[in-house]
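Input sequence (96 aa), recorded before submission:
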Amino acid sequence: MAFVSAEFKHKTLELRAEDAMLAQVIQTRKSQMMERKFLKFERDSLMAIAGLTKTNETKKSAANKRLLEKLKRLEDKGVIVRAPKKINDMVSIKVR
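Predicted structure, token format:
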């Protein structure tokens, strides 16, 4: 986090260790795309970033549920504005 030229919210440091990488990637992408209110990610890339690759291979529904829980925690800390209600192939996350 120290060598990335992007703004990180102070609340990112209060997140669980398992959620920190996801928050860092979202905030880095957010600072790269200054004008956009929504960020779009492919489902599989979000699963890899969130550390849910093995779960995704065996139980997709459980992986979707855990990803939604992680995104909800990011929403609660103010890293994102609104977490999606459902996980599709393309996941839109409101950041502004």
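Checked by second reader. The chain has four helices and two strands.
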